[in-house]
Amino acid sequence: MNTSRAFEVFMAEKKAQGLSERTLEAYSYAAKPLVEACPRLPCKPQIVQDYIYDNNWSQEKRAFVYRHVRAFMRWIAKKYQIANPMDAVLPPRVKRKQVKYLSRAEIQMVDVWLRDGRDKALIYTLLDTGIRVGELLGIRPEDIREEDMLVDGKTGMRAVPISPATKHLLLSLPAYKDGYIFHGQNKGKNSPRLTRNGVRQLTDHYLSIIGFSGKHGPHVFRHTFAVHALLLGMDIITLRTVMGHTSTQTTEQYLHLAHEDVVRQHHAHTPLQIIADPVKVDGGDDNEMVL
Asked: What is the mean pLDDT of residues 95-122?
């Protein structure tokens, strides 16, 4: 069986399912070299393993390739009723990254600097919904409903709840000829539509103003929404639905981050401070206590 032909069918099906161009490019980038290394199906597990591990890739890139190749091989196994070679290939081990997010104080600081109506609507939407940049850029006025809005994401269309303040800001923006809400600073009807790079520049601007120490980018606001939503009581299943994750496992990464904040909040506000004298431990944190 021709692997190249199978990959063409796989990509055609994914495109028909409505996957974004970026996702399709990711599949092509990750799997095409393997298609060349294994021109005939089925691929032997050793060929797949050598492709993933016999190189100088970073662990992050290796994990990226593994995920996309695994999806392709699962599709092949199901489509053509053959053994899945990925069953014998161990997944790469990747250290958990420390994802940074805005604190309550930093969120308030960003808000102080939001004077432009478009910028405020954009930042509020990211903080209120945690949607991805591609989903943000696809919003039209008709997508905004009474208590939610429709976004077109990786998993297809979904309804995302929005707060009244966000809804008001979005509907207050000028109407543009192409029907999309977010455009450049030009207020005319023919103003160019805002791009991904434009969103990154905008978010980086405000993160720089407040002196945010973590990696910049619009995803900071997605992380911020997720962590604070959990801290304020949202359950993991609801958060998964709102954020458009295909797996709860993806959403669970935020439980770890939220727990760190819970620990800090506990140490700062435990009633035990009423009866215990805080003592600074040599080399420790100022908030640590010894009884």
From this structure: 89
Domain count, the chain: 2
Q: Kindly tell me the burial class for residue 139, based on how many C-beta atoms sit within 10 Å of its own C-beta (0-12, 13-18, 19 or more).
A: buried
- 142: domain CATH number is 1.10.443.10
77 and 117 housed in the same domain: no
Q: Say if CB 135 and CB 152 are below 8 A apart.
A: yes
Question: Residues 6 or more apart from 129 whose CB is under 8 A from it?
Answer: 149, 151, 160, 161, 162, 166, 225, 242
In a domain, 213, yes or no: yes
Query: Residue 281: pLDDT band by 50, 70, 90 thresholds?
Result: very low
Among 26, 56, 88, the domain boundary falls at 88
pLDDT value, residue 196: 92
Contact (Cβ atoms closer than 8 angstroms) between residue 106 and residue 210: yes
pTM of the model: 0.69
Q: What is the DSSP letter of 96?
A: P
